[in-house]
Write a structure and sequence with these properties.
201 residues, alpha/beta, Rossmann fold, 7-stranded mixed β-sheet, 7 strands, 40% helix, FMN reductase, NAD(P)H dehydrogenase (quinone) activity
Length: 201
């Protein structure tokens, strides 16, 4: 007896990018998730349409992305987060997977607070957070700035880009770390879909 093929996980990236750096990370997550077998929607939260809200509602996983400005997500992302209250009230995103990524000009830049903001947003919606699941790189004398997770974040993918460079300044290791996140969220979504199918059988 053959097991019917499960549908591809649907992953949506809800992100804001002020100067293009975060958009580079979003594209890296998208490309890797697509390569891993997901159907992926890129959604700019400052231009979101009603059809895109419906795409978020129909997704298996939502990945939040924003630059870190003044120690938190951008104002545009906060506006989007507040607008999700209608979904919160109806539990529309309950039990979906969630993950996140961010960028700032400083090595730390308080990016952790932005990732924590994403986790609280996800928790309010009853979502299940998917961490980066990478050991920290670049933390010994023999390590390299080209290591995955070179900035040592665990909640999500974090990048550092010089404030005097455009999108071309996003570090290749940070792009690779975002790609890892795209693969991981797809793999976890596939596991959840398989589990639900097994329970329903």
């Amino acid at each position: 007896m053959t097991t019917p093929a499960l549908p591809a996980p649907v992953v949506s990236l809800a992100y804001h990018s002020g100067f293009g750096h975060t958009a580079v990370l979003a594209e890296a997550v998208r490309a890797a998730a697509t390569e891993a077998g997901a159907t992926v929607h890129l959604i700019k939260v400052d231009e979101i349409t009603e059809a895109q809200w419906e795409q978020l509602d129909a997704s298996d996983a939502i990945v939040f992305g924003s630059p870190t400005y003044m120690g938190t997500a951008s104002g545009a992302f906060h506006t989007f987060a507040e607008a999700t209250a209608k979904r919160w009230a109806t539990r529309a995103w309950q039990d979906k997977l969630a993950a996140g990524f961010t960028n700032s000009a400083s090595k730390s830049g308080d990016k952790l607070h932005t990732l924590q903001f994403f986790t609280v947003l996800a928790a309010q919606h009853g979502m299940n957070w998917v961490s980066l699941n990478l050991l920290p790189g670049w933390n010994s004398s023999t390590a390299s700035e080209n290591d995955l997770n070179r900035l040592g974040f665990f909640l999500g993918a974090a990048a550092q880009s010089p404030n005097d460079q455009g999108a071309e300044g996003v570090h290749k290791a940070d792009i690779a770390t975002a790609e890892h996140l795209g693969r991981r969220i797809t793999e976890q979504a596939r596991i959840v879909l398989a589990g639900r199918a097994a329970l329903a059988a």
